[in-house]
Design goal:
mainly alpha; two-stranded parallel sheet; 7 helices; 2 strands; 2 domains
Length: 167
Amino acid sequence: MQGCLLKQAPARLKGYASCLKDSWRILVLVDRDDNNCVELKAKLEEMAAKAGLLTKSAASQEQHFQVINRIAIEELEAWFFGDWASVQAAYPRVSAAISKKAGFRDPDAIGGGTWEALERVLKRAGYFSGGLRKIELARSVAAHMQPNRNSSRSFQVFASAITAILV
């Protein structure tokens, strides 16, 4: 559990708890990176509980949760591999065959760093020769994403959290 924002999460959650309106929800999304998924989720749940916030995981059906914790497996960039058509729409020179190759069929199981793999694929297609610009990439690909076609399991769990918040 590295990262400055994650270290600040307990204080931020406590601050939000003091002013959170009944209709508001907090969605916490973190990359798993090299962390154990179960341990990371437990840590996020503990942070919320210590701040006095009820998580979706801990709430009964009758209770209104305040926080949903979700984890991008391994990194958020796996979600782009999960909707490869959106990457192709944003970057047309990228091969359609990438998503069918053994190492890329399961977006959440791409080894060796998901963003690095995406950078290599894009560079081979003639994009981002100076290095991956993640924000630009995210904006370009997200404009074409269709959540229901995304094959990433962690994306689908994230999307279900958005649905739960909106209901």
